[in-house]
């Protein structure tokens, strides 16, 4: 389409671009580097396709109150006058997402910004959200991305939460006495195993129940928890995950806490995908022990750094990561929310 756009200085220019539905898998190669301009860890076309192949075709419906339910993931791209993909947008929800809610991402490659492409992509996404009667849009925007934050605020998005990002450089890391927490927990009767030590469906079910019980304790967590098969798809069978990278704390035969690692094939770095502990076992340094087991695993694998995110309201985990272990603070993400109805 052709649009006449106003520059920030009041001038005008003609910018030609086309907004269309994304062609899968053809557009993945162009979309991956665009996403890498805003994601803290890079992705690839192959990774995007692998994740998309896990998701069945969209199937939306409505609950008894008329709220949007089910799942779907429509995507759009922007092509410039030369046919190059320069922007991307997605609106998505899973069956366990809070009723009425859609998650979104709108991104334009840096050298194509300021031409109205982001506005056009968002308009296509917003129109679809209206068609399916969504009541809320949620985006996560890098706190250092001032232009995107301003873009969202002009469209009535409100900052709801702050997700901190933390990085631990492992090449120079010296855990010192922090590793003593492992022996302390073991002397108190806690055993540490990995999913490789206890393979099979029964152990995976126990780990699933632990995740399900502890997820509501995450600040800002909303919606339902996925059923076992979906949880397994995204946690056990996900790229960059191995059974020996799931560290589990046990009291007898009960799984009481866990930490999971996921490796990025491009950077070789690992991400603390999830850390949890049952409420009655918190405050006993068992979580610290799990964290140090994960650190030790990452070091043994030659990982350059560990990365994680924590909600600003999750004080206990932030203290473990930053005050005790020494994770370095990095720019995180703001959860930006727009109510539609």
Automatic annotation (TrEMBL):
<keyword id="KW-0012">Acyltransferase</keyword>
<dbReference type="Pfam" id="PF00583">
    <property type="entry name" value="Acetyltransf_1"/>
</dbReference>
<protein>
    <submittedName>
        <fullName>GNAT family N-acetyltransferase</fullName>
    </submittedName>
</protein>
<dbReference type="InterPro" id="IPR000182">
    <property type="entry name" value="GNAT_dom"/>
</dbReference>
<dbReference type="InterPro" id="IPR016181">
    <property type="entry name" value="Acyl_CoA_acyltransferase"/>
</dbReference>
<dbReference type="GO" id="GO:0016747">
    <property type="term" value="F:acyltransferase activity, transferring groups other than amino-acyl groups"/>
</dbReference>
<feature type="domain" description="N-acetyltransferase">
    <location>
        <begin position="190"/>
        <end position="341"/>
    </location>
</feature>
<feature type="domain" description="N-acetyltransferase">
    <location>
        <begin position="17"/>
        <end position="171"/>
    </location>
</feature>
<dbReference type="InterPro" id="IPR050832">
    <property type="entry name" value="Bact_Acetyltransf"/>
</dbReference>
<keyword id="KW-0808">Transferase</keyword>
């Amino acid at each position: 389409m052709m649009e006449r756009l106003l520059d920030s200085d009041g001038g005008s220019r003609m910018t030609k671009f086309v907004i269309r539905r994304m062609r899968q898998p053809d557009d993945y190669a162009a979309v991956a580097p665009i996403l890498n301009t805003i994601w803290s860890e890079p992705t690839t076309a192959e990774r995007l396709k692998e994740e998309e192949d896990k998701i069945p075709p969209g199937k939306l419906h409505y609950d008894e109150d008329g709220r949007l339910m089910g799942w779907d993931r429509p995507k759009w791209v922007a092509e410039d006058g030369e046919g190059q993909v320069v922007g991307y947008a997605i609106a998505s929800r899973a069956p366990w997402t809070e009723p009425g809610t859609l998650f979104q991402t709108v991104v334009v490659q840096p050298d194509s910004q300021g031409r109205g492409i982001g506005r056009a992509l968002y308009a296509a996404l917003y129109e679809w959200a209206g068609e399916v009667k969504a009541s809320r849009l949620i985006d996560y925007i890098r706190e250092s991305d001032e232009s995107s934050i301003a873009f969202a605020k002009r469209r009535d998005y409100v900052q709801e939460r702050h997700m901190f990002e933390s990085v631990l450089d492992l090449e120079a890391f010296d855990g010192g006495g922090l590793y003593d927490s492992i022996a302390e927990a073991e002397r108190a009767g806690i055993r540490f195993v990995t999913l490789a030590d206890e393979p099979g469906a029964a152990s995976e079910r126990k780990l699933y129940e632990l995740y399900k019980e502890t997820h509501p304790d995450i600040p800002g967590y909303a919606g339902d928890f996925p059923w076992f098969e979906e949880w397994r798809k995204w946690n056990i069978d996900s790229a960059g995950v191995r059974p020996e990278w799931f560290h589990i704390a046990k009291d007898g035969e009960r799984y009481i806490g866990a930490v999971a690692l996921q490796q990025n094939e491009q950077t070789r770095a690992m991400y603390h995908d999830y850390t949890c502990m049952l409420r009655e076992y918190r405050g006993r340094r068992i979580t610290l022990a799990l964290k140090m087991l994960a650190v030790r695993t990452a070091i043994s694998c030659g990982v350059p750094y560990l990365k994680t995110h924590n909600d600003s309201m999750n004080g206990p985990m932030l203290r473990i990561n930053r005050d005790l272990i020494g994770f370095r603070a990095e720019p995180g993400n703001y959860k930006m929310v727009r109510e539609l109805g």
